[in-house]
């Protein structure tokens, strides 16, 4: 294994990884980059090899953002635009599924909008069965309803599937006091409470998703997945990114069966 990859024991048995659409393309571009998708698949497959059960919620912003499409126009209705955005997540889900299977992983693509020829319908018990059998579950089409973000879908699925942490994969190192790409003096937070995020309106996830995680005491880890090996390090409890929860993060090397 690459020396840059953690060799510790996983700190979590089951995780939900939230991937935005931007993770599927090169910075500043759109569409799908096979290189970027392959990079994600390699990291996720290494985590799966540790025995961790993985559900992945995918966004679709690299292809189409429903909210932006309908903004300032009455040609395409807002609800229609949101449904279009949901179908965009399926394209990303299919790409990730094939990339994971290329790494030797067994997967299932589940959607909340019926697409029987290419995916299974999301049924909670079926998803749990797949996870228990070691399959990586890729979840597309969000909640299946318009006006709901894929961040909120991730919080909802995280609770439904009983994951121990919601890992929000980003292209920056965590949650900052300001946009680090615009403000070089922005401060990186090591940990935050849900209340701090809501009070200061920090850009972690949308407020509905944060509120749902707070209500269900589901911790969130915001981290930079563009650095190779960071998904494994996060799963093994190494101190990276920003931990959002009601209590401190697990220690590095802490076994999941502690």
Structure description:
It is a single chain. This protein is an alpha/beta fold and 258 residues long. The protein has one domain: Acetylglutamate kinase-like (Carbamate kinase, 3-Layer(aba) Sandwich). Helix content is 34%, strand content 16%. The protein has a nine-stranded mixed beta sheet, with helices on both faces. Helix 1 crosses helix 3 (78-102), helix 5 packs parallel to helix 7 (207-215) and helix 6 packs antiparallel against helix 7. Residues 253-258 have low confidence and may be disordered.
Key structural traits:
258 residues, alpha/beta, Carbamate kinase, nine-stranded mixed beta sheet, 16% strand, globular, disordered C terminus, pyrimidine biosynthesis
Summarize the structure.
The chain is α/β, with parallel strands linked by helices and about 260 residues long.
CATH architecture: 3-Layer(aba) Sandwich
> Would you count the extended β strands for me?
9
Main-sheet strand order equals 4-3-5-2-1-6-8-9-7
Q: Globular, elongated, flat, extended or rod-shaped: what is the shape?
A: globular
Reported for the largest beta sheet, the result is:
9 strands, mixed
Low-confidence stretches: 253-258
CATH fold descriptor: Carbamate kinase
Please trace the helix and strand order, writing H or E for each element: EHEHHEEHEHEEHHEHE
CATH superfamily: Acetylglutamate kinase-like
The CATH class label is Alpha Beta
The secondary structure category is alpha/beta
In helices, the fraction of residues equals 25-40%
Q: Note the total helix count.
A: 8
| Euclidean distance between termini CA atoms | 26 Å
Radius of gyration: 17 Å
Average pLDDT, all residues = 91
């Amino acid at each position: 294994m690459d020396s840059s990859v953690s060799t510790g024991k996983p700190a979590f048995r089951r995780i939900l990884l939230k991937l935005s659409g931007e993770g599927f393309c090169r910075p500043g571009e759109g569409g799908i980059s096979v290189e970027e998708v392959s990079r994600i698949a390699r990291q996720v497959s290494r985590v799966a090899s540790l025995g961790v059960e993985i559900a992945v919620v995918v966004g679709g912003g690299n292809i189409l953002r429903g909210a932006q499409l309908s903004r300032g126009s009455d040609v395409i209705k807002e609800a229609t635009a949101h449904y279009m955005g949901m179908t965009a997540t399926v394209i990303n889900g299919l790409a990730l599924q094939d990339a994971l299977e290329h790494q030797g992983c067994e997967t299932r693509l589940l959607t909340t909008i019926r697409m029987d020829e290419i995916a299974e319908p999301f049924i909670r018990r079926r998803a749990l069965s797949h996870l228990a059998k070691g399959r990586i579950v890729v979840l597309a089409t969000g909640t299946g309803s318009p006006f709901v973000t894929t961040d909120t879908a991730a919080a909802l699925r995280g609770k439904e599937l009983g994951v121990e942490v919601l890992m929000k994969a980003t292209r920056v190192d965590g949650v900052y006091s300001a946009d680090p790409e615009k403000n070089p003096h922005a401060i990186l937070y090591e940990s935050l409470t849900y209340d701090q995020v809501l009070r200061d309106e920090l850009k972690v996830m949308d407020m509905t998703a944060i509120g749902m995680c707070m209500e269900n005491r589901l911790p969130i880890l915001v981290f930079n997945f563009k650095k190779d090996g960071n998904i494994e390090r996060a799963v093994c409890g190494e101190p990276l990114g920003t931990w959002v929860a009601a209590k401190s993060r697990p220690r590095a090397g802490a076994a999941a069966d502690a």
